[in-house]
Amino acid sequence: MKSIFIQAIIIGLAIAAPVGPIGILCIRTTIAKGILAGLAVGFGAAAADGFYVIIGGLGLGIVIKILLGIAPILKVVGGVFLLFIGTKIFLKKVSYSKTETEVRKSYGRLFSSTFFLTLSNPMTILTFLGVISAMEVEMTTNFDLITLILGVFLGSILWWVFLVTIVSIVAKRLSVKVLSFINKLAGLILIGFGIYILGWA
Q: CB–CB of 181/94 below 8 Å?
């Protein structure tokens, strides 16, 4: 059990750590809206990772085939969504004038939008299956599967907490001008990811 749990945490870290569109979105959100908003993005991604590992762990072949069958549609949806978010971020000025209540209301939207954005990439489940196979994770009971799911989720959460904490510490030392530049750069990167995904849809 301990071995599977440790392996699962490593898998969660391995899936979450590479800096992609979600990582950029998390960094930008943390800078613009604070730690809790950044965590909402990270937890949304972790929840999607957990969902996919459930599918992979249960070996739901039919669901996997359906996801792969509609992969082009999912890529288009994800690409367009990234273009929208990237453009919105690029055009928006960095502002700290929002009230705490307004920021809190955005947590749910950040979580849900990140969850569905992460789900729009069917390659995530293939990555999980590949990593699980490479690490030779053996699941013989339902308890092993639950341990795997919790471990992957925890590993993913640990990465997002680490990333958000580091970004929030650094952000406090940056001027508004620098933060504005980072905001526009993040928007351009997300737009670039969106164009790339649509190009391969």
A: no
